[in-house]
Amino acid sequence: MEEFDEGILNNELRDDEQFEIRLRPQRLEEFQGQAPVKDNLKVFVTAARGRQSALDHVFLSGPPGLGKTTLAGILAHEMGAEFKVTSAPALEKPKDLAGLLTSMSEGTLFFIDEIHRLRPAIEEMLYIAMEDYELDWIIGQGPAARNIRIPLPPFTLVGATTKPGKVAGPLYSRFGITVRLELYSEEEIELVLHRSAKLLGIECSEAAVNMLARSARGTPRVANRLLRRVRDFAEVLHDGTIQVSIVEQALQRLLIDSIGLEHHDREILKTIIRNYAGGPVGAETLAISIGESIDTLEDFYEPYLIRSGLLKRTPRGRMVTPRAYTHLGLEPPGTPDNGNEQLLF
Ligand code: ADP
Question: Which residues line ligand 1 (CB under 6 A)?
Answer without folding.
Answer: 20, 23-25, 31-34, 64-70, 192, 195, 220-221, 224
